[in-house]
Amino acid sequence: CYLIVSLVLGFPIMAMEIAIGRRAARASIQSWHALGKGGGAIGILTALITLITLPYYCVIGGWVIKYALIFVSGAGLSAAESGFFSGFIGQTAQPVIFQAVFIAAAAAVVLFGVKNGIEKANKVLMPILVVLAVVLAVYSLLAKGAAAGAIYYLRPDFSKFRFETILAATGQMFYSLSLSSGIIVTYGAYLERSADIERSVKQVELFDIGIAFLSGLTIICALFAFSGGEEAAVSAGTGLMFETMPAVFAAMPFGQAAGALFFVLVLFAALTSAISMMEVNTANIIGIFGIKRSAAAGIMAAVLFVLGIPSALGYSVWSGVRPFGHSILDFMDIVGNSVITPVAALLSCVYIGWVVGPSTISDEIARSSVFKRRRSFEFTIKYAAPIFIGGILLGAAMGI
After folding, report:
1. Measured between alpha carbons, how far is 144 from 283 in angstroms, rounded to an integer?
2. d(CA 114, CA 123)
3. How many CB atoms lie within 10 A of CB 133?
4. 47 neighbors 234 (Cβ within 8 angstroms)
5. E strand residue ranges, the chain
6. Cα–Cα distances in Å, from 118 out to 9, 54, 100, 115, 123?
7. Cα-Cα-Cα-Cα dihedral of 69, 72, 76, 78, to 10°?
8. Distance CA 113, CA 233 (A)
9. What's the pLDDT tens digit per position in 368-377?
10. Closest to 84 (Cα-Cα) out of 317, 227, 250, 229
């Protein structure tokens, strides 16, 4: 399901958002506003998504820093002890402190702008991330018992197919490709006029799916090789990374080194995502209020820190606050990724397809290269994407 929605919906929506940004060459809200009446509202909605998702994401990023430091320092076995994770997130000070450190690291890169900050950081972080992903995947695959994990990972089990499967796959697609959150529009604004948008989107999708595939293969194969691959462990959610995986590393040869590589890999991936999300509203603040980047980045860092505190304390002093039965962090994740993001995507496609006209976007894409998928792009944006996304939202609302 993830592969299908990534290829069918991911390409046209990403191409659309890059073209919107490049066409206006402004921050995301202003780029949407430049399309005409009503566009600015969609721009505000997509920018709002990062203000919902990034604060709790920085909390998780802080957890990753904690675990990366533990494993790199040689004390990784302590993280495998029962109750370590719940004890850590159940504290008041540490989760907030590590959240602040993660925000500061992302803000430091955003402070220097796209070319001197984000671009230079990604030129270093991305190759390292790819190498680490490949190394860990090979290491997991060569372990005794890993073959069973690979089979479990790659062979579909249609008896477990549910409507929620499609909903989860679509939400993951939007999140992993950074769609409908202002990120792609923002980066599109920095794209050179001569860049081939169609080719760029293909490359992004290829690397995104590739890294996702390797990450899943690494984790599932390691689980089967070193902890039996029990169903409860495979579907442990957040606990899979912070409870199950440390136990797996403790059981494997050279587990200390493998754990260090794993959490450094996750940290690099988390930082690059956080930097992208932070850039969205940093650029919006600069574009709307005309202030310096340093001030805008500082404002964003402060806002993220304050908004992230409820999620950071949601397992300690605010553990009794459970909106609709979820922890604060999980609730924000559901609202941001499973509700508002698909709604923003639906409105975006309807607006481009039926108000602005998809040919406006197609013409922008075709300015720098031959747009080979023009017909399928316009059909998907105008008809297929709204029907599919609308159907998913309707099904979720009806509890199918």
Report:
1. 49
2. 12
3. 23
4. no
5. none
6. 27, 17, 19, 6, 9
7. -40
8. 41
9. 999 999 999 9
10. 250
